[in-house]
Each structure stands twice: as C-alpha cells, then as structure tokens.
Write a structure and sequence with these properties.
Layout: E1 4-7, H1 16-30, H2 37-40, H3 48-58, H4 67-85, H5 97-106, E2 111-113, H6 120-127, E3 135-136, H7 150-158, E4 166-170, H8 173-181, E5 185-189, E6 198-200, H9 208-216
Parallel strand pairs: 1-2, 1-4, 2-3, 4-5, 5-6
The protein binds 6-O-phosphono-alpha-D-glucopyranose and magnesium ion.
Keywords: Carbohydrate metabolism, Cytoplasm, Isomerase, Magnesium, Metal-binding, Phosphoprotein
GO cellular component, one term: cytoplasm
Pfam families: Hydrolase
C-alpha cells in the first residue's frame, strides 16, 4: 500500500519555476551576468542563497560581494519574485494536478509538500490548495537543499510514512536525486530526468492509475 505522495511545488503544481527564472535573470543582468533557461535548470530545487552563489560563479563574481551584500541581492530577487506571485490564481494550477490530488485523496493516502521555497505557503494560498496537503515541510527548518534528501524525508516523517512506500513528484534533476536518495519512488515531470523511476513529459500525464501501476511494478 502506498503510504504517501509528496509533491514538489515550483514547476510541478504551478509554473512558478518560470517566475523564479525571470527574477533571477533580471538580477543577474543588473550584475552583468547572462543566464538562459538551460542554466536555470541548475537552479531548480536549489535554495535562494545557493542559487545566488551559482549565478555569481557563472559570472566569475563570487568574490565581489560581502555576505551582507549577497543577502541584499537575494532579498532584491525575492521581492521581484513576490511581485510576480501577485498575479497567481487557482487558474494557474498546472493541467492534471487537481485531478491527481483528488484521486489520491479519494483513496485516503496522505499528501505532502517538499519545497525548499520560503514562499511555498504564499503560492499554495494563491492557488487555493492549502487544504489539499496534510503536511508541508517547512523550508525554514531545512538545512540542506535538494539533491539532499532532507526535505523529502522530513515530509515522509510528517506524514508518518515509510519512504520506500512513498512517491515523490519532481520537475528538477536535483529534486529527482533527492527523492531517490530518500529511498522513495521518483516520478519525474519534464526533460533530462533520467534518474526518475517513472518519467512523464508534462503534468497532464500525471494520471493516478498509471502512477500506481508503475509503482507496483518498481524494481528495488
Ligand atoms: C524552489 C525552487 C527554486 C527556488 C527555491 C527557493 O526549490 O525550485 O528555484 O530558488 O525554491 O525559493 P525561495 O522562494 O525561498 O527563494
Ligand atoms: Mg520544482
């Protein structure tokens, strides 16, 4: 019996991964650093400060700022991101997600959230999805970003679920690695997620009956 399903947020439930990208791209350009969508793949699932470090490294500017200045840069990105979040409504829930949540709930299986975003609850609120989740891991209490399994393990613990009997859903390579490191079954949504146990092109393919079949046929 499946004990829990744990969702990533940005890029799985809604396309806020794109808003993160727009806000980082803007900040990077102010610093004379150019990033594209391909580079952005490396930022998915990574904490705010770790993302900033990767961008500064890309521009060879890591040594140019004090830690206080870095905090300011990260805060600037975040306020831009929060501005973009203001347009978010339940219409922005990605295709297939609401149906999937409903199907899981109908079987009484606990649903969790594993996002390292400190804005996760703001996003869930804007989408009117808070009630769907039995447990949301608190990003503020997580020491290690994905690919470390910490946030997925925390979510399983919060749901009283055994990781090996639980499913994680991710759009980022670091996230799929985190799910696997937690010993869970990894559903990957998107490209370049070869480590996933079950790989889908986009969220419209998130069909509960098919996910269950692939979980039942998993190799250990
Ligand atoms: C998620 C996103 C990342 C983002 C991180 C921190 O993992 O995939 O792109 O940088 O959360 O988000 P925050 O909202 O706290 O800056
Ligand atoms: Mg994501």
């Amino acid at each position: 019996k499946i004990e829990a399903v744990v969702f990533d947020l940005d890029g799985v439930i809604t396309d806020t991964a794109h808003y993160h990208y727009l806000a980082w791209k803007d900040l990077a350009e102010d610093l004379g650093i150019f990033i594209d969508e391909k580079f952005n793949e490396n930022l998915k699932g990574i904490s705010r400060m770790d993302s900033l470090e990767l961008i500064l490294k890309e521009g060879n500017r890591q040594e140019d700022f004090t830690s206080e200045e870095k905090e300011e840069l990260a805060a600037k990105k975040n306020s831009h991101y929060c501005e973009l979040l203001k347009q978010l409504t339940p219409k922005d829930i990605l295709p297939g997600v609401q149906e999937l949540l409903t199907a899981i709930k109908a079987e009484g299986i606990p649903i969790g959230l594993a996002s390292v975003s400190k804005n996760a609850m703001t996003v869930l609120n804007a989408l009117n999805l808070v009630e769907e989740f039995h447990y949301c891991a608190d990003a503020a209490k997580i020491a290690n970003s994905k690919p470390d399994p910490e946030i997925f393990l925390t979510a399983c613990e919060g749901l009283d679920a055994t990781p090996s009997m639980s499913i994680g859903i991710e759009d980022a390579s670091a996230g799929v690695q985190a799910i696997k490191a937690a010993g869970m079954f990894a559903v990957g949504v998107g490209e370049s997620l070869d480590e996933a146990d079950y790989l889908l092109k986009d969220t419209s393919e998130l069909v509960w009956e098919l996910i269950k079949v692939s979980f039942a046929n998993r190799k250990n």
